[in-house]
Structure formats: C-alpha cells, structure tokens
Amino acid sequence: MRNFMKKTSLIFVGMVAGIMVSLNFSAIADKQIRDELHTLPIEELRAFSQVFGRIKSDYVEPVEDKKLITEAINGMLVGLDPHSAFLDTEEYKELQIGTQGEFGGLGIQVTMEDGLVKVISPIEDTPAFRAGIKTGDLIIKIDNTAVKGMTLSDAIKRMRGKPDTSIELTIVREGETDPLMFELVRAIIKIESVKSKLVEPGYGYVRITQFQERTGENLAEAITKLYQESEIPMKGLVLDLRSDPGGLLNSAVAVSAAFLPSDALVVYTEGRTSDAKMQLRASPEYYLRSSGRDFLANLPADIKTIPMITLVDGGSASASEIVAGALQDHKRSVVMGAQTFGKGSVQTILPLGNNTAIKLTTARYYTPNGQSIQAKGITPDILDEETSSNSRLLREADLSRHLSNGKEDEKTATKKADKPSASKSPKKKHDKKKEGPMEFGSSDDHLLVRAIDHLKSLIQQPEIQTSKAQG
Fold first, then answer.
1. Protein fold of 194-395+440-466
2. Cys-Cys link to 312, which of 150, 219, 316, 445 (CB 3.0-4.6 A)?
C-alpha cells in the first residue's frame, strides 16, 4: 500500500506540473504571476495525491481516473466564485449555442448554494417564466430525485431535455410554509433579444431581454423602425433592461454606442494579467465581431441626443449594468427603477482541447467614472418604491463565495433571510392564476408609464437631462 501511495503521489504531482505547462499560462501572465505559477505548492499537492490514492484503493467501488480528475477540476473552479466553472464537451457546445439565442430547456438561470439549486433569474417568455418561477427560489427536487448531492452540472442536465417533455420541480420559496410543485413542459428556448413599440406618437420603447450576437444589429433595426412608424418627430425613448441577465460584452458596447458620442468610454476592466486590462469605447472596433459593415452607422442623428430613460431592476445584471452605468456616467440617460444585481466580473472562456474549456473569472468591470459594479450594482437616479419592493431579493452579494467589490470594503455582508425548511410537507400546487408575471411594456407596466411621464417633463425642462435626477 505504501509503495502504491508513493507512486500515485509522484504520478499526480508530475501530472499537475504537466498540466500547468500545457496550459501555457506564462504566455499571457505578467512576470510576477509567472513566478507564482512556477512555484508549485508541493505539500498541498502531496495531500491531494494522498486523497486521490485513498479513493483509488479504498472507495466502496472502483472509480475511473478521468472522473476523479474531472471532479477535482470542477471543485477547484467552483470553489473560487459562483461564475467560474469547468465546461465539458456538451456544456461548451451549449454555451456557444446559447449566445446565438436558441437552446433547449426550461429557460432558467441557476447557481448552486448549500447543496441546492438556487434560481438567479427565469428568462422572459420561457416555460419557467410563464410558470411563475422566481429569483431566489430553491429547487429541492427534479422530478422525484432530490437535488441534494447533485453537482450543478448534473442538475442542469436533468432539467434539460427534448421539447414537449414534462418535468416536475419542487421548490422552496421564502414566505411559503410548504414546498411548491411546478409542472413544466420543456421547449426550444428562442429568445427575442430586442422588442420595440411606439408607446404613443413621438415616444418609443425598446426592451432588451438578453445580449446576444446580433443584439446590436437588432437594436439598430428597432430604432429605425420606430422612427419610420412615428407620425411626428421622435421626442423621447425608454430603454428597458429590467430582468435582463446580460450576455456578450461586445453587444453591451454596441448598445451603449448607439446612444453615446463616438469613442466615448463605455466600460473598462481591471485584472491581474495584461490581457485583463481593457478600455472599451463606443467605436466599431470594440463592438463589431468581424470586419462587416457598421450597423450603427445609419441611425438617425438625434438618437444621440433625444431625452432618454433607462429602466432597471434587481434582475438587471452584467451587460445590462454596463449599459446602464455608461449611459448614467455620461449623463446621457436618467436611470429609473431599483438597484441592479451587481454582477460586475469578467468571465473568460479558455479552451482546453477535446472540446472542453474553463470559464474563469479574470477581471472586474468599472463604469466610465471608475465605479466597480461587482457586488454593488448600479444605483438608479430615480428609485421607484414599487419596483424596489417587488424586485428580486437575490443579488450577487448574496451568492456564496462572491467576488468582492474591489474598490469598496465590504464591511457588512448582505444579511440573508433564513431559508424555509426543505423538509416541509405536504406539497401544494402552485396557483398560476394568483401570481402571473407582469408583462414588461404592457398597459399594466406602471414603471413604463412613469418613465413616459418623466420624459415629457424632460422635454419641457431639458436642463434636467444633464443633471442628476431626484425623486
């Protein structure tokens, strides 16, 4: 046994060293980071190899080396923050498909917390959204299988499946004494990135549900259509980013560039390596993915100057916060609604070969005025009490192992509400009629009504547009 453990230890340490060389991190890291990588923590690796050896020799049933190594990589990344992860072949492929706006499943974004699956956000116009699943819900069972003990990857795979097949989720929700049971039907999730309409002549409404590959182009088409449809010159625009979980960085830059002066700073990033330090500006080189035509070039000239309101809530995250922060800092738009989610970290996809990759947090986002978005979010110019009270209770700062703000000391952690017991019974069916999701942009959308009223006041008093709004 001792010889076996010794051999295993030597093999494992050698294998780790080989992996570090093959990843070639030194090619992108600064000298200090290269020096750190060249100093392997031998004592910790020896302990790791001993665990590896014990599992191989003593575990109740045989375990393949590949599974152990894969799970070790998973654990290494999951232990960093809620957004770093190992992507196997299937997950890597689905990530690429998802940015194009079509994928299979329920339409729900989740994370893992305390061994349970926690809902970050249901995606608009999907089975999960229509069923009434909410941010902060804890999924304790998928069909008849308990989630406790699953990895996040396993749980996601169980929730995905062929379209038109049924699935049952058992959920614990704050404020409910008993678990709720949701019966959903899987579907091909086709996300319409940009929606638009004329609220009334001269007043346009544009909603971005997610930042995808063609969001910038779709936005340009929507703006052009609004101008064509309006019987009078456009007077004001509402940009709705509520419950938009984010997406592609270049698309966030494109959306910002549609409304900002040419070459205005949209966002900058700070990280440990030179590649993680970027300044992204309102110029085609920062938002075009190829050398194609600039889809923003022919927009109406006054789209850069007409009064504008940007709507946000607790579900506005990542790319949404970048856009809201850029428009706010440049005093281009009044931001209205509730404090945003606070997801201000950069995840870089690093391919590893064999169609796998790691999603690694490499930097933090900062608004043009130098405010870190991470674990704080964007504070609206006009806080809306109803939006705030109904807004999402879960934010980045509530997630386990969340990255700190970077510039501001987090002296007091966000106090989490006590979770309801996951063992309560019996279950009760969720009554969809009692809690239907409000449709953004509808006649019942009080925040949109308030935004249009405020736009009209801006037109009457244009100097308000360039100052910090109060209310």
1. 2-enoyl-CoA Hydratase; Chain A, domain 1 (3.90.226)
2. 316
